[in-house]
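Fig. S4 source data, part A: sequence.
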Amino acid sequence: RNAKKRAGNKLYFGHTQVLIINQEIARTEDIGSVLDWFWRDGECRETVYVAISQEETAADILDLEGIDQSVISIKIQKLLQGDNAITSSAPAVELYTTFETLNSQGKELVLPALRKVISKDVRTCELNGLAVFKGERLLGFLSPLETKYYLFVMDAVKGGLLPFSSHGAGRADATLEIHKNKTRLSLCRAGPAPRILVKSETTAFLDEYMPVRVELKEPRVIELEAMAARKLQADIRAAMASSSI
């Protein structure tokens, strides 16, 4: 409202594409109090994307340049919209989802994280994993790799790649492209504490295979499937057991 004292037109929020929140504010203030106006005001769309800035301020992200888009907010919107089908390194979280999550028992909020990078002398932004909340305060961040396996657990993977070693160990020399995935969670008791069982069924294509002179007959294909499955299982366990939070 005070901007109207200097600007000819009243600020209009109906075309807002992305809402970026400073990480210091997210750590020290309840995120619900920050989002409350955007939830309630009639101009704001419920489909606005929400993200956390890993820079000193949120403005540090909006002041950057877009490599393939002249408007940085449009670039960020397109980054979020397409990521889950291409890299599965950060989910797109819309404004209405934040309200549902914060008002649901047993669920915690996660938001995509953005950081500043230099690409061929251009200051631009990139997705950098997940900001994880405990209650209404920012707890910490997951790396893009940890985020991928978090998305597997949450049945939210739409695409991306799975590099692995075709020998079962050592350097990755084969890559699967994820076609579809379905993850089911179940709870069981094994000892004094409950355990969560994660069953992930993944359909993928062999996208890269560096031993080009090796003939891919059915027995070898079955071996590759088993190696990729063990690698995926190990990566999901590692991400859950030793996340950066």
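Fig. S4 source data, part B ends here. The radius of gyration is 21 Å.
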